[in-house]
Amino acid sequence: MKKIILLIPLLIIFLSCSQNAQVNSKENHCITNCITNSSTADSLKNLLQFENAIGQYLAVFKKCNDKKIALSIAKCYAMTNNYDSALYYLDSSTRCDSSIYKLYMGEFYDCLKLPKYDTLEERQFRKYESKYGSFNNREYSKKLMRLGMKDQAYYTKINLYPDSASFYWDKKNIINDRNLIEIEALIAEYGWPKISEVGIEPSSSAFLIIQHCGKVNVMKKYIGNLEILCRNKEANWSEFALMTDRINTMEEKKQIYGSQIFFDSEKNVYYLDNVLEPDSIDFRRKKVGLNKIEDYLKQWNAEFRR
């Protein structure tokens, strides 16, 4: 039995980090220069012992006011459904930088219902615009970021709690259906989001939602426009590549870029197959900004079935 693996969390992290890699000199004063050691806390978190992990992270955080540690604490609190504390440490993590991507990580989806989230979001948008310039369509950008966050909701819990995966997938399917209705309404009003109008990070949300809608006719409705925007540097070629492969896979055609990984439940192994001209796949991947197929397969410990 084949199962398409969702690769979007990796993509959105890559796109998010591209604009937030640098921190200005004012922000640097907020970051202590001590070296933090959170390996024990990290191990506890990986073992799903979130309460114990929080205790270890807090001990490190008291010694070194590190925004990375604050973000880890926020995620752990979110995983224990303590959303007030999650927002408190998310606030600490973002107070001394101008990033917005942290606010829209899927772990914080349930924080949207708290009024403090709106305040935190508005503060970060102002700081972001102060550093990078104003969004041409600010409200569209904010709506897109929230939709992208909803798209990423529950992936962490699905991966951590496989026995409860069906429960969270039921929740995600409801979210995905609502997201599709909302994004199509926004596209009808504003058009497919252009990088120059909404920013790099928000522009990817439309792709995420359409890619995950599970409806090939919807993907084919927008793929042509996405290609045109890529040619005009208003969208990312990697998004076009992934959507192209998803369409071909759903129509039982050969993949062009080899982005869709499957799971063989009988052999308990991930694999890639049904690729057009496998010997030239790296040439095609390079043209759209994807890494070498060998490196990509290593990420999944997957085999290439030529």
Write down how many β-strands occur, each being a DSSP E stretch of 2 or more residues. Answer: 3
Beta-strand residue percentage: under 5%
Secondary-structure element pattern, one letter each? HHHHHHHHHHHHHHEEHHE
- Largest beta-sheet details: 3 strands, mixed
Radius of gyration (CA) equals 20 Å
The computed structural class is mainly alpha
Summarize the amount of helix as a percent range. Answer: 55-70%
* Uncertain runs: 6-29
Total of DSSP H or I helical runs spanning 4+ residues: 16
Main-sheet strand order equals: 1-2-3
Query: What is the arithmetic mean of pLDDT?
Result: 88
Shape: globular
Distance between the termini: 18 Å
Write the layout of secondary structure elements.
Elements: H1 8-20, H2 25-28, H3 39-46, H4 50-63, H5 67-79, H6 83-94, H7 115-132, H8 138-152, H9 155-160, H10 165-190, H11 195-198, H12 200-211, H13 216-231, H14 237-250, E1 262-264, E2 269-273, H15 281-287, H16 293-300, E3 303-305
Parallel strand pairs: 2-3
Antiparallel strand pairs: 1-2
Structural commentary:
- The protein has 306 residues and is mostly helical.
- The chain is built from 16 helices and three strands.
- It has helices spanning 8-20, 25-28, 39-46, 50-63, 67-79, 83-94, 115-132, 138-152, 155-160, 165-190, 195-198, 200-211, 216-231, 237-250, 281-287, 293-300, and strands at 262-264, 269-273, 303-305.
- A three-stranded mixed beta sheet has the order 1-2-3, with no helix packed on it.
- α1 runs antiparallel to α12 (200-211), α4 runs antiparallel to α5 and α13 runs antiparallel to α14 (237-250).
- The chain is globular, with a radius of gyration of 20 Å.
- The two termini are 18 Å apart.
